[in-house]
Amino acid sequence: MVIPNKPLPDSQSDQDNPSINLLAPLNPHHSSAITTADTMDQQPHTPRSYWRFSKQDFYPEPSFQNLSAYKAAFSETLHRLRDRCLGRSTDETELIELKKQSENEMRKCLTWVDLIWLGFGSVVGSGIFTITGLEARDDAGPSIVLSYALSGLSALFSVFCYTEFAVEIPIAGGSFSFLRVELGDFIAFIAAGNILLEAVAGAAGLARSFSSYFASMFSSNPDILRIRIDSFAEGFNLLDPIAVIILFIANMVAMRGTKLTSSSNMILSMISSLIIVFIIIVGFTHAKSSNLTPFFPYGPEGVFRAAAVVYWSYTGFDMVANMAEETRKPATDIPLGLVGSMSMISVVYCLMALALTMMVNYTEIDRDAAYSVAFEKIGMKWAKYIVSICALKGMLTSMLIGSMGQARYTTQIARAHMIPPWFALVHPKTGTPVYATLLVTTISCIVSLFSSLDVLSSVLSFSTLFIFMLMAVALLVRRYYVKETCSSSDLIKFMVCLFVVIGSSIGITVLWAANRKGWVGYAVGGGLWVAGTGGMMVVGERRVPKVWGVPLVPWLPSMSILMNVFLIGSLGGIAFKRFFICSGVMLVYYFFVGVHATYDLAHQDSQESMVEKGKDDATKEGL
After folding, report:
1. Of 129, 244, 285, 495, which has the most beta carbons under 10 Å away?
2. Which family does this protein fall into (predicted)?
3. Alpha carbon distance 512, 135 (integer Å)
4. Which residues lie closer than 8 Å to 429 by C-beta, 6 or more apart?
């Protein structure tokens, strides 16, 4: 579909023109897409300021030009829903057409070294210091090292899926763009809503954690810096101004420039890595092999229970995948950066967990401050301050990188018109999406001021795992279904195999959650999972990666589906409830706004008649 790129006459307003080019830049004078011929035909114009707030910048789609146009569009809602459920984007649309919405290019300034340290800074936060002691004491004992190894393997599977997509579609949207290409517009919207929910909950949760850890350095009460409002509901009655301040500072730094943020993160992460090396060396220096006995005090079940919890220590790498558009050589830098950082982090986590359990018997590990108390037991009380500084640094860099990644998610979502395209604009000087950053910052600051950690963590966990699972599904679809070469029978065979894999993964998870001890159910579920995955091999791949591909397809993506579904099943009922409530709110927005904006973008040539119909109706009403 070719969409004309013609300027409007000065005497005609955007609102009155039916042929609004939704794929053209909002400010074409800042775009390199204008040809010489087009330039010659245009009258001299003064480039519009970046700081603008007109209705046309927020809702340029024909469906929202006036009330009659919206009524005409709304009458076609069911047809448009069907179209968007079946519609899929393309690599070219995400990489070329939608980028025009931002008017200015993001700067390609990142190398594989930057990506490795961005991965390290994003993932290595407070989790390793707060979760390890709790799970070693209550669930796994010394075998906590195996829990970290299993979780690291699961995270690496997801990293592989992200890497293949990021190499072939190096765009700021990350998983949103990947899902839009392979699973369609509607699934991508559900993912987009959860991505924004994850961004807000993740940033607010980190800010609240920073506040608690900072307060614990000089007080036994982590809420000492918070303001209690008794009239507010429990979980929302402790106002946290420190969380708001630190979150605002982190986002302002990220907004100043990508390279500045990357350099700041690299310096802070190098300091943190030296502290981690110190912790590991001291731990093994004071290690006692007798502390490793018994190695499985809670049995194999304890290892898996702990793995489901410590998995959160590995989240954050998806933020780095969002930096693909600003990477100099995506084909080589992204695999080295993502896979390299996650491999390094997995080794570091396992060594830290082993050092802790060898330094102190698991029955004596403190649940809340494992490393600090462990150092006290060996006569190094001063070391607890080093541990606290390392944890605070980890949370700070996670907020820095999270703010960058979240803003780029939001930018691509806006480029697709799922939210107003005004948020897609990239600042000409900083090369960063300032409006998108401000949107996420504002909402995150409000949430962090009111919401407690337990409320935020349950929402964040479900959204993160749900998106990781969808990414594995999308990778299988990309490899095994190409519309031009895949017959209807092969598509049906593939879909049956895919549903068997997902269904067996859910079945195994339900059995585990129900605490079923027999092996028959697991054997049946495992057999179906193997049959579904093996069936895909019989169907055969339809696409070969151009540069870098996930190994062991379809087994590795299928295992990623199983692990992520299993981890979702380990969450409490409240997480499911909050997830479905949030998804319901998203669907209401999509029904009344999102479906019409995205339909107009995909079918621009057919919108002129709809707008003309709306004008005719308005004229008749006037008469």
Report:
1. 129
2. Belongs to the amino acid-polyamine-organocation (APC) superfamily. Cationic amino acid transporter (CAT) (TC 2.A.3.3) family.
3. 19
4. none
CA distances from 303 to 140, 288, 423, 447, 564 (A): 5, 21, 44, 34, 16
Query: Tokens 């290019």 sit at which residue?
Result: 105
Confidence of residue 42 (pLDDT cuts 50, 70, 90): very low
Predicted pLDDT of residue 494: 95
Q: Write out the DSSP string of 188-230.
A: HHHHHHHHHHHHHHHHHHHHHHHHHHHHHTT-S-TTTTSEE-T
**263 against 513, higher pLDDT:** 263
Residue 590 has a pLDDT of 92
Token digits of residue 304: 């898996």
Whole-number Cα distances in Å, 128 to 12, 84, 287, 311, 371: 60, 42, 19, 10, 10
pLDDT at 123 over 60: yes
Q: Is 327 helix (H, G, I), strand (E, B) or coil?
A: strand
* Torsion angle (degrees, nearest 10) of CA 515, 519, 521, 525: 110
Tell me if residue 239 falls in helix, strand or coil. Answer: strand
Read off the amino acid at residue 506. Answer: I
Distance CA 65, CA 180 (A): 26
Mean pLDDT (the chain, rounded): 83
pTM for the model stands at 0.82
Beta bridge pairs of residue 227: 239
**Cα–Cα distance measured from residue 513 to residue 508, given in angstroms and rounded to the nearest whole number:** 9
Does position 16 have pLDDT exceeding 50, yes or no?
Answer: no
DSSP state of 153: H
- Assign residue 312 a region (left: φ > 0; alpha: ψ between -120 and 50; beta: otherwise): alpha
Q: Tokens in use for 83?
A: 């179209």
**Residue corresponding to tokens 């986590």:** 349
The pLDDT value given to residue 451: 76
Cα dihedral 142, 144, 147, 148 sign? negative
Kindly report, residue by residue over 516-525, the tens digit of the pLDDT: 778 889 999 9
In the chain, the percentage of residues whose pLDDT exceeds 90 is: 39
At 516, give phi and psi (nearest 5°). Answer: -75, 130
Q: How far is CA 48 from CA 43, 255, 428, in A?
A: 14, 21, 12
| Maximum pairwise Cα distance, the chain | 92
* pLDDT of 71 above 90: yes
Q: Quickly list DSSP for 65-123.
A: SSHHHHHHHHTTHHHHHHHHHH----HHIIIIIGGGGGSSPPP--B-HHHHHHHHHHHH
Cα 152 vs. chain centroid, distance in angstroms?
18
Q: Quick one: how far is CA 354 from the chain centroid?
A: 30
Predicted confidence band at 423 (pLDDT cuts at 50, 70, 90)? Answer: very high
Task: Compute the CA torsion angle 436, 438, 439, 444 (nearest 10 deg).
Answer: 130
pLDDT at 22: 61
Contacts of 378 (CB under 8 A, 6+ apart): 282, 286, 359
Length of the chain: 623
Distance of CA 541 to the CA centre of its chain: 27
Q: Which structure tokens are listed for 395?
A: 């949370």
Beta carbons of 322 and 405 less than 8 angstroms apart: yes
